[in-house]
Amino acid sequence: xxxxEELQKKVRKLNSRAGIAKMELHDLAEDLPINxxxxxxxxEKTYGVFAExxxxxxxxxxxxxx
Length: 66
Prior knowledge:
Elements: H1 3-30, H2 39-64
């Protein structure tokens, strides 16, 4: 598998993880004030996944020459 294919696969996996993290944050917000103490933990996890996804997308774009 080429580096480009590996990176494309990584972006797809990160997209999936980001979608799940977004829904967890959304579900937490809908249930407030229940579990309000988890806001920072869930938000940090979501932020981390989206930051990783953004970096991978930028790397992929550079590799594809876009």
